[in-house]
């Protein structure tokens, strides 16, 4: 029987802190009882998400004709695979089987990834950049709940993801054709909704109580602020 984020025994109060790629200043800290999942759940999801980014990027590489773009995508894919492998090593160091730890979340996360694959390669490329950025931010925040192991995960997720060239590709695309700017802006807005649902599912199923919403609001405010800065850097409207 699969145990999802919220299906666990009552846990002590934990702390959620969000720090997005070093550009948010002091992290907002939110005390939220029973917020973070169990450690093996967190590690399994974090590892499988990175594997998913790698898979999507490698598919884009196969469909790309321009050699310079293939090289840019290969570097981003390599960075995602490195993160995956390093989280897998943490799982192994705890005496667990990485495949068994990741397997319960494969179906749910594959479904999310399918929803974020666009009709056109540029949409899919933007999807990887947007969803990986937002969820890396969120998982770094959740990682603050796990002491030294969490600190190591923060270090892994904060490493260079080699996506600056993806930004350049998107910028060149929207500069060449103004219709792309409108299309990708609308696509990004759809991506945000699906990605926030994944993050909120880590908190608890269903609507939060009013007091809980107030306590967790600063986290999502910072999450959206970091997203807006990424969009601005590409020349897209958030």
Automatic annotation (TrEMBL):
Pfam families: MiaE_2 (PF13794)
Gene3D superfamilies according to UniProt: 1.20.1260.10
Residue ranges annotated for the Ferritin-like domain, each copy included: 42-197
Name listed for the protein in its UniProt record: Ferritin-like domain-containing protein
Organism from which the protein derives: Microbacterium keratanolyticum
Lineage summary: Bacteria, Bacillati, Actinomycetota, Actinomycetes, Micrococcales
